[in-house]
Design a protein that fits this description.
Blueprint (H helix, E strand, L loop, with lengths): L2 H13 L14 H17 L6 E5 L3 H7 L5 E5 L2 E3 L3 E2 L7 E11 L9 H6 L1 E12 L8 H6 L4 E6 L13 E6 L2 E7 L8 H12 L10 E6 L4 E2 L5 E6 L3 E7 L3
Parallel strand pairs: 1-10, 3-7, 4-13
Antiparallel strand pairs: 1-2, 5-6, 5-10, 5-11, 6-7, 8-9, 8-12, 12-13
Length: 251
């Protein structure tokens, strides 16, 4: 099938609530999956949503080991939520979160770019949580997960600030219901979170896309992915950057 026919098939499945169409299990290449993702996002935007940026996922060794896939991936960000946002108990499908630095660009970028060029293009940085949904068998069907926008649901952004000099040494402390559940550093994100922007600029070029001024880039988690449940409050503190939190109500 050509790209449009594939996108049609996945769009029809999505409209009936099937995010990982069983008919396509083990049948997609990663390249096809990205083309479907971009096509579905274009249709969602035509229907009234707005793409505000990008995510880079599977950047930390802990997450690559968690999901058995050993290269970064990208997805599109269409929604953001304010710091402290509390989701309803039925707002999310099998939710979880990742702990990331989100960077806003002040100029366009197209690959290949250097780490210095990526740094120069960053306007501000936010402490952030990526809120993800597991809408199907992620580990068994990575291609379908990418077609389904790489688990993306929304991002929760803290207060923006200037980009620190040494991103590798920034520490993250992750709390669920005030209990420390994980720690990590910026070095876990491809060695330096700016390298996620470098990778993304190059990867998007393969699909005729570029990063645009004003877009936000979720650069990848400092830790493994954590599940969320009704009643949970989660908070991540990034040294020298700030903190961000979110929750899910019980009722």
């Amino acid at each position: 099938m050509d790209d449009e026919a594939l996108i049609d098939s996945f769009w029809e499945a999505r409209t009936r609530g099937e995010f990982f169409p069983v008919a396509w299990f083990d049948k997609l290449t990663i390249d096809q999956a990205y083309r479907i993702q971009l096509g579905l996002v274009a249709r969602r935007c035509k229907a009234g949503e707005q793409q505000i940026g990008w995510k880079v996922g599977l950047t930390a060794n802990a997450i690559q080991e968690q999901f058995g896939f050993h290269e970064p991936v990208f997805g599109c960000v269409l929604h953001r939520s304010d710091n402290g946002h509390v989701f309803g108990p039925f707002d999310l499908i099998s939710p979880g979160f990742e702990n990331e630095l989100c960077m806003r660009l002040n100029r366009d970028l197209s690959g290949p770019v250097s780490v210095l060029e990526a740094r120069a293009a960053v306007d501000v940085v936010y402490p952030s949580l990526e809120i993800i949904e597991t809408r199907g068998p992620f580990t068994a069907q990575i291609a379908l997960a990418l077609a389904d926008n790489a688990q993306q649901k929304t991002v929760v952004l803290g207060t923006p600030g200037e980009l620190p000099d040494e991103l590798e040494s920034i520490g993250a402390r992750v709390y669920v219901n005030d209990q420390l559940v994980g720690t990590g550093t910026g070095a876990a994100v491809l060695g330096n979170p700016l390298k996620s922007i470098v990778w993304l600029a190059g990867k998007l070029g393969q699909y005729g896309r570029r990063l645009k001024s004003g877009e936000i880039i979720m650069t990848g988690s400092f830790t493994r992915q954590f599940a969320m449940a009704a009643g949970d409050r989660v908070r991540t503190e990034f040294s020298g950057v700030g903190s961000v939190e979110a929750g899910i109500s019980k009722i």
